[in-house]
Amino acid sequence: MSTTLPRKDLFDLPEGMIYLDGNSLGPLPKAVKGHLASVVTDQWGANLIKGWNLDGWMEQPTRVGDRIGRLIGAPAGSVVMGDTLSIKVYQALSAGLEMRPERKVVLSDSGNFPSDLYMAEGLIRHLGKGHELRIVAPEEVEAAITDEVAVAMITQVDYRTGRMHDMDAITAKAHAAGAVMLWDLAHSAGAVPVDVAGSGCEFAVGCTYKYLNGGPGAPAFIYVRPDLVAAIEPALSGWLGHDAPFAFEQGYRPARNIERMRVGTPPVLQMSALEVALEAWDGVDMAELRAVSVRLCDLFIAEVEAKCPALELASPRDASQRGSQVSFRFEHGYAAMQALIARDVIGDFRAPDVMRFGFTPLYIDEADVRRAVAILAEVIDQRLWDRPEYRKAGRVT
Amino acid sequence: MSTTLPRKDLFDLPEGMIYLDGNSLGPLPKAVKGHLASVVTDQWGANLIKGWNLDGWMEQPTRVGDRIGRLIGAPAGSVVMGDTLSIKVYQALSAGLEMRPERKVVLSDSGNFPSDLYMAEGLIRHLGKGHELRIVAPEEVEAAITDEVAVAMITQVDYRTGRMHDMDAITAKAHAAGAVMLWDLAHSAGAVPVDVAGSGCEFAVGCTYKYLNGGPGAPAFIYVRPDLVAAIEPALSGWLGHDAPFAFEQGYRPARNIERMRVGTPPVLQMSALEVALEAWDGVDMAELRAVSVRLCDLFIAEVEAKCPALELASPRDASQRGSQVSFRFEHGYAAMQALIARDVIGDFRAPDVMRFGFTPLYIDEADVRRAVAILAEVIDQRLWDRPEYRKAGRVT
């Protein structure tokens, strides 16, 4: 196996910091600075409005979408970028509900990121057509997919515990029950091998500022299974999803391809940062990435359990059921994470007691893992979390 | 009157170019380059996830919203940034329809930007509650505001002709008829004095990449009249509109203020460019800006009519009924605009025959106007538009 990982030299990582929060916001790829400066000066500054043509801004959402597609097993022309993940959830879910007008249940699980649940709740309330958002425990998803379910809306990797659903099995179950399958890949894209086309799911959505290192607020993506796209009537029917946006027709006619999932003017500067950030993935073998990720996560679990017995594993022990993050429960987790961050080991905290650590083989190696645990053990053993400065309420990043 | 305009030194304008397309995409403010580089390196690069707290990313949408608010007469805390204008139209229109459940008409006019009409069409179709999008001629809007109208959704300045609606009069008419008033300020914000609070309108939305120079794809804004915001149940109920986003509750509870109109994670890089771009407005007196804008537009009309008799004014001659742009109809407008752009006078073209020119007193002066018309006259007189290279079909920026 050719070892191409890690690729630390591609990232600007602060000296001395061990960054285990790439599952929340990826670090800065070195290539971003120069490229973004050039987009600002040589494209916007020099070409102004002509940039839409000369610099390929108009096609950027599909061009970048194809780059994402290669990481999630989506064929060219089936992924488009834009907006935020919440908006993409709304687009996919509203389209999915229209595909099953006789069914009234949106199935999700309590491990889904709250915004997905909120968007479903808002959509259902707003439609006022008697839909129900049914939320079950992650372990109960398969059993809960009945012929009442219009759309199964599931996040593959649980943001809190790292628990990973079996995408193929659940998609097959959904289809056997006649339901539409919508996957949220927020914690999957760039974290684990994904094959959306192979799974046969109708929709997949995700964000790009986590494992894909696109920067704070990088745009989201949406995949629509190619055989379905022509039948979708977008709820968010913006001009850039029109078949001929610059004809300025009075009535909406959706584009004939994935571009109908575009809405408004794309964020060119933000997307340019993402576009160049994705070059860090050139030549990465996802199977190798996964193997390294599993090794790092397993090592972290073994080290923490050996050195910090007060912490209780909140993630699946079986790597095959886990994404690229590991979480531990600790009663004083909030303050402990503050203390850890103060010592330049960056993880994050999710209420009520979860200390969360992401492992990203592009820039994390085994030495980082060992050093992180050594510092964590100091924080726990020396009760550094009991210091007043770490106990004050507030959000831990 | 203290003369503070133009402020050309604040912008990077290409040498020799006369840029009359700031109504489509504003030029690069010099301050953007350094600031964006610092956001990338010193915020994202150095602080990573901590940037959400340390660098004020989380509050940026309201902080920037307040800056926009000062330009459109909105009180502090009543404007928030995010997404695209099309999404903001959807949010405002869906909320407006819920405020008048017994009424079924969305009134707009044929001068509205198509995306607003498309978003209304998609919303109406998706809701399936028998709403009607009624589109009248711009001159007929006031008369068409009847007690059937749930929401009057009007763009103040017509993107094609520059024709400007009387915001106070139409809002008053809407309210007298019991309708909700939604203004699109895409071609107003930074172009003409606006007083949303004074008008009493319920909603206003707009974009920031035109007269506000926020860069390609800069985020949109939404204003909600402060007394109404607590009653709105957002259709797009994303986690950052939640009252306590970091509590990760399973159910949605909207924020108690304008933040309930937030949806997903904001585009920090893109919004940082906008934030610093808005400094060009510090100390600008909108009455002075308007006076200069009128002078430039009147001069342009007089010069074109004197030197290019083949062109027919498509904008109102009366400045009080015109925004900060002037349009002329010309049978060969498409090719003529191509020829003009090739000579570094940048306007744009809108089908079927409109040549459109924006006048932005921050960086355009009378000498620019005279020189632009001299070059336009050459293009027309010498039939440069008849050259094959300008006649090929395609989009003119």
Automatic annotation (TrEMBL), chains A, B:
Q: Which Gene3D superfamilies match?
A: Aspartate Aminotransferase, domain 1, Type I PLP-dependent aspartate aminotransferase-like (Major domain)
- A Pfam family this protein belongs to? KYNU_C
What cofactors does the UniProt entry give for this protein?
Answer: pyridoxal 5'-phosphate
Keywords carried by this UniProt record = Hydrolase, Pyridine nucleotide biosynthesis, Pyridoxal phosphate
Which Gene Ontology molecular-function terms are recorded? Answer: kynureninase activity; pyridoxal phosphate binding
Which biological process, per GO, is one annotated for this protein?
anthranilate metabolic process
What enzyme category does the UniProt record give?
Answer: hydrolase
Q: What is its EC number?
A: 3.7.1.3
Fetch the InterPro entries from UniProt: Kynureninase, PyrdxlP-dep_Trfase, PyrdxlP-dep_Trfase_major, PyrdxlP-dep_Trfase_small
According to UniProt, this protein's pathway is: Amino-acid degradation; L-kynurenine degradation; L-alanine and anthranilate from L-kynurenine: step 1/1; Cofactor biosynthesis; NAD(+) biosynthesis; quinolinate from L-kynurenine: step 2/3
Q: Which SUPFAM superfamilies does this UniProt record tie to the protein?
A: PLP-dependent transferases
Catalysed reaction, written as an equation: L-kynurenine + H2O = anthranilate + L-alanine + H(+); 3-hydroxy-L-kynurenine + H2O = 3-hydroxyanthranilate + L-alanine + H(+)
Quote a single Gene Ontology cellular component term: cytoplasm
Question: Any idea what job this protein has?
Answer: Catalyzes the cleavage of L-kynurenine (L-Kyn) and L-3-hydroxykynurenine (L-3OHKyn) into anthranilic acid (AA) and 3-hydroxyanthranilic acid (3-OHAA), respectively.
Listed under subunit, the entry gives:
Homodimer.
Task: Give the family per the record.
Answer: Belongs to the kynureninase family.
What protein name applies here? Kynureninase
Q: Give the gene name.
A: kynU
